[in-house]
Amino acid sequence: SAVISQKPSRDICQRGTSLTIQCQVDSQVTMMFWYRQQPGQSLTLIATANQGSEATYESGFVIDKFPISRPNLTFSTLTVSNMSPEDSSIYLCSVESRDRIYGYTFGSGTRLTVV
Amino acid sequence: QKEVEQNSGPLSVPEGAIASLNCTYSDRVSQSFFWYRQYSGKSPELIMSIYSNGDKEDGRFTAQLNKASQYVSLLIRDSQPSDSATYLCAVRSGGYQKVTFGTGTKLQVIP
After folding, report:
1. What is the pLDDT averaged over residues A42-63?
2. Which residue among A1, A92, A104 places its CB closest to the CB of B99?
């Protein structure tokens, strides 16, 4: 399965600022997925990032708040903009295995705390 | 109705026992089903995938799928304290293969 490097691993940010999270994959992948996991809850898909096209956002998530870049087949960034304490969460990037049989692999996650 | 439902637990089992984790899903055209293990403070780790009705075994783990009942389960035999974690059921369906996660079941294996 793919190996994903995600950074930063954690950050504490001031209200109103923005944070950009990076994910680097060790192989080329068509789609990358960004999830949020709020404390004590499951994973919620934010958006799907395809190389060469705009990201597809899930209901409740908008590009202005969570802009995504996907400049090539191995890299993506998610920015959390104009942060509020409600954005405190773990953010995870994920990719599908090459043969689509073995599910999805996750990065190590970014633990964000907004104060 | 939630798309993927799990009992949040905690499910407590003694060491050496069989742990049974259950999941139901709402989308009848769902195609792929996954079980992930998530230790506290860590990202989810895929442990099992299943696509056809019936059982699939891998070591101490057995996944069971019943599409007619829209039900998938995970059995862990000879449970170990190291199995203590949250187990997430995930279902893939939809046009671009969106994966939806359940809320997870917390398993505690008591030594």
Report:
1. 91
2. A104
